[in-house]
Amino acid sequence: MKKQKVNLVSEIEHVPIKSIKPYLKNPKKHPPDQIEKIKKSIQDFGFNVPILIRAGEIVAGHGRLMAAEALGLELVPIIKMDHLDPLAARAFLIADNKTAISSFDDKLLAAVLQDLAAENYPLETTAIDITEINRMLEGMVLNMQEPKQRPGRAAGRQAQGPGGDPAAGHAIALGGYTVLVDNGTAKRLKDFSSFMAGNPQLKNEIDNMIKERFLELAEEVLPA
Fold first, then answer.
1. Which one of 59, 103, 113, 220 is CB 3.0 to 4.6 Å from 52, fit for a cystine?
2. Which domain holds residue 51?
């Protein structure tokens, strides 16, 4: 069977951001929240995915250009696609966006998120919605079986901010469950910790309330 010749990228260049022209007929939408996520990704991990350019015009990477402009970057990484003719470049623009739209294996994705949470890594850097993260993490433990601790993972381990308080954007482990802490939850947990520190006589009463609520939840989840 004859091998097909495939063009391989020769090099990545860094060019002035002002030298790049967006394709005015780009059909891909870039809402503000998406640009914010791209900005955050560049800040957290670096500009790791170059913008694809042909004759100075973007073939793929309009969102990355918008994020770079918002960050005030002067230089951006590019890959020249000059091996494509104008029509092929337009076709690739659509193909690149369509092939990028794919679904996750929720179980494998949840396992990766759980590993990150166990190491106190801020899960909001994945650009996945907090509610969606919690849904996937909770789905891993709905069988209500005794959770098996992975090597190096302690039960009840939680991410903490300054002063030992749970930090927003991290996860706390509650039994076999992992819950991502948002800003509101972090504040409530901090307020609760302060309240308990000033009212130690209420500890037993609060413990009993938590146990009762846990049993109520178990009754709702477990089959009759």
1. 59
2. 13-100
Let me know whether 169 and 210 are in one domain: yes
Same domain flag for 123 and 211: yes
Q: Which pLDDT belongs to residue 149?
A: 45
Residue 1 falls within a domain, yes or no? no
pLDDT tens for 32-45 read 988 999 999 999 99
Query: Which tokens go with 111?
Result: 């396992």
Beta strands (DSSP E) in the chain are: 13-16, 51-54, 57-60, 75-80, 171-174, 177-180
Measured from the Cβ of residue 145, the count of other Cβ atoms closer than 10 Å reads 8
Q: Are 148 and 42 contained in the same domain?
A: no
DSSP 8-state class, residue 32: H
* Nearest to 118, CA basis, from 189, 178, 183: 178
Q: Which of 85, 100, 115 is at the close of a domain?
A: 100
What is the structure's pLDDT at 148? 47
Q: How many CA atoms lie within 13 A of 220 on its CB side?
A: 6
Say whether 43 sits in a helix, a strand or coil.
helix
For every residue of 60-106, DSSP letters joined together read E-HHHHHHHHHHT-SEEEEEE-TTS-HHHHHHHHHHHHHHH-----H
Do 45 and 119 have their domain in common?
Answer: no
